[in-house]
Write a structure and sequence with these properties.
Layout (H helix, E strand, L loop, with lengths): L11 E6 L10 H9 L2 E4 L16 E4 L11 H13 L3 E6 L9 H10 L3 E5 L4 H9 L11 E6 L13 H4 L4 E6 L5 H10 L7 E6 L7 E6 L3 H8 L4 E5 L16 E2 L6
Parallel strand pairs: 1-4, 1-5, 2-3, 2-4, 6-7
Antiparallel strand pairs: 7-10, 8-9, 8-10, 9-11
Helix pairs in contact: 2-3, 6-7
The chain binds S-adenosylmethionine.
């Protein structure tokens, strides 16, 4: 437990979930870690505003994939985490959403364990939950869905193991939450329909959930390709399944609907 005033040993790493983008969606524990950090390794999806919570003198190391620029490889990030902690520093690795969901946290944990670096994981609001909140839907609405699957639409080329069996995953009673899925969505929607899924299966694409520029696009597997085309280039979460139709505007869906950003 991260308690006020607790002594954190030198050479410590917090793997912190920054949440989906709005600065006030990080956890209090995440904020405390940022306030203690001497160095923060951050990337694109972790909200910039959060860096302002750090104390003066904190070093920021950008390890993201800024367009056109150099991006740190995962191995470089692992090495940096270990070397900074070995130098006795208190390190935050700030990651968008939750670090355990499509965040390559597994590799970072392995590196920290191998180097025997003390560390803690601080969870965050993952994009699927932020997207559901933005759209006003329950991912596991009683009577409509008994399971919600977090899947990637962008499987790595060199990955081991079989490719995802989308037809098996997209069963009635299951909500599919697809991360990094706008590019592959036209193909995925075609495949699902070709394999017997109803073309009218409801679908939402929630882009920039929780951010001021948030956009929600509502449609079906049939209109998925057009919606995906419009959403490409923005961080977007695709929700496929009956629960998508619980979005208040879904019934009268125009191709794209923009919602006002609500913040507390
Ligand atoms: C590399 S994954 C990281 C996921 C992150 N660890 C999480 O738990 O949300 C990046 C993908 O997450 C989704 N994503 C992240 N932030 C989002 C947001 N604010 N709105 C919608 N989708 C988002 C998008 O599919 C994006 O391409």
């Amino acid at each position: 437990m991260f308690s006020e005033g607790a002594t954190i040993q030198r050479g410590y790493v917090w793997l912190v979930g920054a949440g989906p983008g709005a600065a006030d969606l990080i956890t209090l524990r995440g904020v405390k870690a940022l306030q203690r950090a001497e160095v923060v390794l951050h990337d694109d999806l972790a909200g910039r505003d959060l860096l302002e919570l750090c104390r003066e003198g904190t070093e920021f190391i950008y390890v993201g994939k800024r367009a056109g620029g150099h991006s740190a490889s995962q191995e470089e990030i692992n090495r940096l985490l270990v070397s900074q902690a070995r130098a006795g520093r208190q390190v935050v690795r700030l990651k968008g959403g939750d670090p355990s969901v499509f965040g390559r946290m597994g590799e970072e944990l392995q590196a920290l364990r191998a180097a025997q670096i003390a560390h803690e994981i601080i969870p965050g609001v993952t994009a699927a939950c932020a997207a559901a909140a933005a759209a006003g839907i329950s991912l596991t609405q009683r009577g409509l869905a008994s399971a919600a699957v977090l899947a990637t639409g962008h499987e790595c080329a060199g990955k081991s193991g079989p490719p995802l069996d989308w037809e098996a995953l997209a069963q009635p009673g299951t909500t599919l939450c697809v991360y990094m899925g706008t590019r592959s969505l036209p193909d995925l929607a075609r495949r699902l329909v070709a394999n017997g899924h109803a073309a009218e299966t409801p679908l939402l694409i929630i882009s920039d959930a929780s951010r001021p520029q948030q956009v929600i696009r509502a449609g079906t597997l049939e209109s998925a390709a057009d919606l995906a085309h419009d959403a490409e280039g923005t961080p977007s979460l695709v929700v496929i399944g009956e629960v998508a139709a619980q979005n208040p505007e879904w019934q009268t869906a125009a191709p794209a609907r923009t919602y006002a950003h609500a913040s507390v």
